[in-house]
Amino acid sequence: MSRPQEPHRPSFPFGNPFRMILPKGSYLSPRLLSLLNDFENTLAERLRKLKPKGTEDVLSCSWMKLAMELLCEIHKDIKILITDLELPVCDWDDKWIDVYLDNSVKLLDICIALSSELSRLNQGHLLLQCVLRNLDTASPKQLVRARSSLDSWRQHIGSKNPKLQNCLTILDSLAESINLPKIKNSAKGKVLMRAMYGVRVATVFVCSVFAAAFTGSANKLIDLHVADTFLWSEAFTDLQSNVNVEIRNIFSSGRVTVLKELEAVDTSINKLYPMVQDGVGPAEDGTFQNSVSDLGKSVEKLSEGLDLLTKDVDGFFQMVLTGRDALLCNLRVSPMHEDNTQARILRSPR
Prior knowledge:
This protein has 350 residues and is mainly alpha-helical.
């Protein structure tokens, strides 16, 4: 995979959103404060669990699977909070609804882009299967075929997915608009918006890491600055610093693939490629057979990891879509929002 030469992406200093959501003098009842603290403490704990135990865990398929599962859990938490707040849609301010619907459309578009890239990588798996089949007996004719498949795989993996570029644009848009408007005359609304801020920060972070892994560029990372007034800010800052620094170190060392399982396949191919070049037969010392075996193992691990990631991304897509549909359904039966419902329904994923 080639390394795109791009300027470093800007960070997004958000100041202190706490002042916008809970300005000086705001009052929260003990019950609302308890709900908010429980949500933020749970978010902090989830973020701490995502911190990689070692550098080799960063951007392995298992870690990325955990990251996507984390997003699903956080989005489940916000749904539970909405229920606990006893804040029906008819009591929602229009701007809250607009923020939720706009974010949900963007998240659906991001999921579509990530699923597209996972599908593309899985297509490369078919080429690698052709390589392994042709190396079973390793006759001169089959070696030539294996080399052709290896060349096709390298070209396929090195190509760019235009949907990922759209994903990056959406991520920038989410990050730039992550600040929340002032909430007046609604203590429950202030709790909801503050909690949604945490969900949005975690979502943008995880999606930007996925974008960096799939595009092969650390320039795709987004650095988010969170005020220390949030109970989860320390856990998030520690996680973001740990992961982003490691990804940038990986690229600065000259490696062109970040996804660990894909890197293992690339390493195996680089060792095997000279042995099949021009149909030269395998060495008698077993080096060739060992290299074929290593490639087979790394291909299997990559395939398993991609399958798991695909299921989790699809699961997250369905969760976002279900939440959006539920809100729109509630709007249809809410007299206060009846006039605007049709326009909002038309905001479908691009």
